[in-house]
């Protein structure tokens, strides 16, 4: 495999439905993306080979290479502990492949903490970037927006939040194709001066960043109605927001279903407009996006949702390919350098 | 008016639709709650008198007393500045009425920050309680739960979070009628050791509190599915969660409406099951709860949603009456004292 930039290491044991969902994803990627990528399938070699054969794919397919990783990090394992104790786990070995120059990036639908930890330890940070952040694309009334950081770094300095703003802005430009993304700092009110100490300090730093369109503080009400394109927060708040929204959508769907079933007339009406709900589900389906990139580290990693089936995995693989094609990391280093330079003057 | 415990001061100028929605609320309260309460109507006296007459109520009604407060704090004004510069505003004068022993509690659907600030400055804190918290009752798959604090105190020490746990627990017992509320600390994962520094430190304090059923860390996924009854977080996170959920529900409703309108068949189906959606709206309607109490201060204040119409205001008035009847503040002082005593041993 000559050009490692089109080689994607896939964590075959990551996710609630691994390895079968990941194998399905690789099969879909092979047929959908043609010869755009090559794949390092990292996991228990025999099990992966068997899974491929079950899907009618030869383990010696020219675009595939099997890399043995007999250990697995479970979804609920303590990340740092797991990385330390399982150096031959699929996620750690996948990161090793990038470090060794054998792959350009990694896709994993596994334990998020383990992916973040392994990338941080194995790859280290990009030049000038202080901490990694996860950029999750969320659906909104007026189109997608980016939640940055949605869970990688829990305690953040103002500079870390500034770097999240820069990386989120770049991601929105490059991947969502926005020409001038509106960036907001998530707070408990929109007025200047609102926020906890962390946000108040970060506000002063973010407004100084050259080249980003910083709208100031935003609040929870701004998140889904399209006021901003990039929402900056620490990974503690971002993770809570992300998971709360996931659960609220699920609970509301459940309440609707339950309520509609209560009367025959409603049930009938519900059946008739089922297509409308299917349409919304598609519009808000995380597996269409394929996962969220971990930004700021020296490598490209997309983290899929643990519940992904094959289609989500295939989209996640394509998302890694996109990051590599766009050379996002080179752009991040340049932009972060500009921030540092502007603060010197 | 003899017993101030049944006297409720109403901020006539609080809320997006003040004073008319508040006047409607007072009218509803008078007819719905009989002679359970008396009301101090705090606002521009003539305007309030005129509004009452328009509703067929005499300003000299035996249960009413008009208290003049010519100034108004707007919904978007800076709270502390407004309180300082407008000592004769309806919210400040309403708080003064309780301080002077003329009323037992306050209802306001106005500027939350101003209500919190005025209560804190005028009433001060309950003995032993470090900071105030807002206990918002939220709808969930398996019934209501309490978000504490949903916006009063943004930077919290572990002890403040412990006091929120104690107050939220008492509120769930007394007002929601739960015999042994499950209390969770909102974090970015459920495992012990998860969380930012604040949450990690608070965890150690919360697990020591005698008499509360502390389940440990919870995450966003736990909020609407009924895992816990009381969700403890600082007011920064709580405010973001509250507003994000409000907006997400609104956005999803909008998306459903929009999607259903796209085809005639779907539109027809939507019409047939409209009743099911109305039912959900009722189940999740904040105006049925009547607002959220500000706990920890030396007085009883319920803060309604700015968009309340008369029915929400009437329910908010009843919520103040409930707090007074239950003598929640006496119980809070006692419970917080037990926490302090247990940490001495």
Describe the structure.
Two copies of one chain form a homodimer. The first copy, chain A, has 345 residues and is α/β, with parallel strands linked by helices. The first copy, chain A, has 13 helices and eleven strands. Chain A has helices at residues 20-32, 45-54, 79-85, 90-99, 112-123, 158-174, 197-206, 235-260, 264-272, 274-283, 286-289, 310-326, 328-344; strands at residues 7-11, 38-43, 64-68, 105-108, 133-138, 145-148, 182-186, 213-218, 230-232, 292-295, 300-303. Chain A has an eleven-stranded mixed sheet with strand order 3-2-1-4-11-10-5-6-9-7-8, sandwiched between helices. The longest helix of chain A is centred in the C-terminal third of the chain and has 26 residues, at 235-260. The radius of gyration of chain A is 21 Å and the shape is globular. The relative contact order of chain A is 0.16. At the A-B interface, helix 8, helix 9 and helix 10 of A face helix 8, helix 9 and helix 10 of B.
Query: How far from one another are the termini of chain A?
Result: 46 Å
Question: Beta-sheet strand percentage of chain A?
Answer: 15-25%
Number of strands of chain A: 11
Gross morphology of chain A: globular
Would you tell me the structural class of the helices and strands of chain A? alpha/beta
Per DSSP, the total helix count of chain A is 13
Oligomer description: homodimer
**Low-pLDDT segments, ≥5 res of chain A:** none
- Pattern of helices and strands of chain A: EHEHEHHEHEEHEHEEHHHHEEHH
Chart the SSEs and their pairings.
2 copies of one chain form a homodimer.
Chain A: E1 7-11, H1 20-32, E2 38-43, H2 45-54, E3 64-68, H3 79-85, H4 90-99, E4 105-108, H5 112-123, E5 133-138, E6 145-148, H6 158-174, E7 182-186, H7 197-206, E8 213-218, E9 230-232, H8 235-260, H9 264-272, H10 274-283, H11 286-289, E10 292-295, E11 300-303, H12 310-326, H13 328-344
Parallel strand pairs in A: 1-2, 1-4, 2-3, 4-11, 6-9, 7-8, 7-9
Antiparallel strand pairs in A: 5-6, 5-10, 10-11
Helix pairs in contact in A: 1-12, 3-5, 4-5, 6-7, 6-13
